[in-house]
Amino acid sequence: MDDRGGLTAAPASARIEVRRLPSTPDLGALAAASGADVVWLDSSLPAGSPPTARARARWSVLALTDGPFAARFRHETRRAFVETTPASRSWFGDVATAEGSDRPAFAVLTELLARTPVLPEPVAGCGFALGWVGFLGYELGRESGGVDRTAEGHADADLRFVDRAVVVDAAGDAWALALASDAEPEASARNRAWLETVTAPVTRVDVDDVAPFLPGPAPATGRVTRAAYETAVDACRAEIRAGNAFQVCLTTAFAVPPVQEARRGPATDPHLTEYLRLRAADPVPFGAYLRLGPLRVASRSPERFLRIDASGTVSAEPIKGTRRRSDDPVEDEAVRAGLAVSAKDRAENVMIVDLLRNDLLRTAVPGSVHVDRLCDVETYASVHQMVSTIGAVLPEGTSRAAVVHAAFPPGSMTGAPKISAMGIADRLEDGPRGLYSGAIGYFSASGAVDLSVVIRTLVTVIDDRGTVRSRSFGAGGAVTWSSVAADEADEVETKTRSVLAGVAAVARW
Question: Which one of the listed residues 76, 184, 274, 320 is annotated catalytic?
Fold first, then answer.
C-alpha cells in the first residue's frame, strides 16, 4: 500500500511506453475507426471562457478497451462481474468471476484498485496513467444509505482497465500511451506495434460531414407531465417545511426519439456521429462519449464531481444555480448578474458546499477540508452557472474507492441531508435514474482520479442488432422552501435545450 490510494507497488517489469505524436489526432475519428468499446473523455472550451473552467478542460483522453491487458468490471442486478484477458488475469482474475458475485460494487472496486499496478504519470501535468475508465451509476447510492434500486436496461457500473490510450492537451500536443510488461512479452509486443500505428495520420472528421439527417424538431416525451412535476416540487417543499430536508434535487426524464441515419461520416456508429454534432455546438470541460456494451452515452457535462491527484489532494466543484443565456449581450449580462446575487441560488449552492465538506471529511485529514471559492458564476455556450470549489487532503494510504464511496452519489444531485433527500426524491420520481446523476471518468494507475457529474447527458441502450431499446435524457433541479413550482419546471426545460436541440428534439411534457 502507498500514498496513491491503497494500490500495490507495480511489478518491476510493468511500465507505460509513450510516443509523442507528431500532430494533433482527431479523437473522434480514432473513436470511429475502433470497432471496440471506447471511453472518450472530451474536454473543450472556447477562448474567452473563465480561467477556472479552462483549467478543467486542459486534457482529453481517448481510452481503447481492446488491448491485450484489458479487463472489465461490471455491477448489474446487485452482482459484480469481472472479466480478464490472459495478460491481466494475474492481477484481477480472482477478484470476481464472469459468473458474478454478490459483493458490493465499491468493495470490488477497492480490491481492483489495490491490485492495479502503480504507474507514474507518463505526461507531466496529466493525471491519467492508464487504469480504469467508465461510469458509476446513480443507483450505487444504495451502498451509501440510498434506496435499494437498480438501473433499468443497463449496468449500475461499467469500468474498463485500459492499456492503450491517446491523451491530448488544450494546445493540441498529443501522446499515445501503452502498457508493457516483461512478464507478458507477446502482449507487450502487440502494444508496441499499436503505438506505431496510432501515429499514422488520421483523416479529420468535419462536423458538416457527419451531421445526421434532421427533418425537424421531434418531441422528447416527458416521463411525467409538467403539472405533475410542479406538484412534486410542492411535495418537496412540504417535506422541507416538515423538517425532513433542507433541499431536494428533484429530477425527471424525457424519452428521446432514435437517432436518424447519417448521410455521411462514421455511420458504423451513428450515435458517435450525433455526439460530434453536439460537441461542435456546445463546448464543455467534461464532455464524454462512451460506447460500452449496449450503452451509447453522449455527455455534455460542465460539472466536476471529484478530482484526486496522485499525491492525495482532493477537490470537488459542485454546480447549483443555472440561467439560460440571452442572444442580446446587454440582457445576457443582466441574466448573469441576476444569478450572482440570487439569494435562492446562493442558498442552494451553499447547502451543497456544506454537504460536500462533510462527505470529504469522512476520508480526509481532519482540519484539511476548506472552501477555495464560493458561488462563483461561470459562463458557458448556452448557460450561466454558479460553481464552488471545496478542497481537502487525504491521509497516506487512503483508498480512492473509499473517497468516492463516501461522497457518492454527487451531492449536487441529491440534496441535503443526503440520505433523507434521496429518499424523498425517490418516492416522488418513482423510478431509477440510471447513469444520470452518477459519475463518468477515470481511476488512474497513478492514483489520480477525475470524475464528472452525469448531467446534460443522452443515454441510449441498444440490443445486439443495434436497434434502440431506450433513449433518455434526465434533467432536474434543487428544490428549497423558497422554490416556485413553475420556475423549477422552467429550469428543467432550460437544462434540456443544449443537448436536445443538437439532436433535433424538443422537450414536450
Answer: 320
**Cα 403 from Cα 212, distance rounded (Å):** 41
Tens of pLDDT, residues 399-449: 999 999 999 999 999 999 999 999 999 999 999 999 999 999 999 999 999
DSSP assignment of 116-177 equals SPP---SSTT----SEEEEEE-GGGGGGGT------SSS-SEEEEEESEEEEEETTS-EEEE
Please tell me the distance from the alpha carbon of residue 191 to that of residue 423, in angstroms, as a whole number.
47
Question: Which member of 83, 303, 488, 491 is catalytic?
Answer: 303
Tell me which residue of 69, 58, 55, 60 sits closest to 30, measured CA to CA.
60
- In the chain, the number of structural domains is 1
| Cβ partners under 8 Å of residue 238, min gap 6 | none
Please tell me what DSSP assigns to residue 394.
Answer: P
Residue 173: left if φ>0, alpha if ψ -120 to 50, beta else—which one? beta
Question: Does the residue 211 lie in any domain?
Answer: no
Range of the domain at 136: 14-203+217-508
Active site residue 303: yes
| Per-residue cell: 202 | 488520421
- CA–CA separation, 116 and 428 (whole Å): 41
Q: Is there a domain that residue 8 lies in?
A: no
Give CA torsion, residues 8, 12, 14, 18, to 10 deg. Answer: 120
C-alpha cell at 309: 491527484
Is position 212 within any domain?
A: no
Report the SS3 class of residue 44: coil
**71 domain-assigned:** yes
Q: How far apart are CA 336 and CA 385, in angstroms?
A: 8
Residue 100 grid coordinates = 458474478
Look up residue 482 and give its DSSP letter.
T
Would you say 160 and 37 are in contact if contact means Cβ atoms under 8 Å apart?
yes
Task: Mark 74-110 as b/e (b = at least 16 C-beta within 10 Å).
Answer: bbbebbbbbbbbebbeebbbebbeeebeebbbbbbbb
- The enclosing domain of 381 has a CATH number of 3.60.120.10
Global model pTM greater than 0.85: yes
Residue 195 has pLDDT above 80, yes or no: yes
DSSP label at 502?
Answer: G
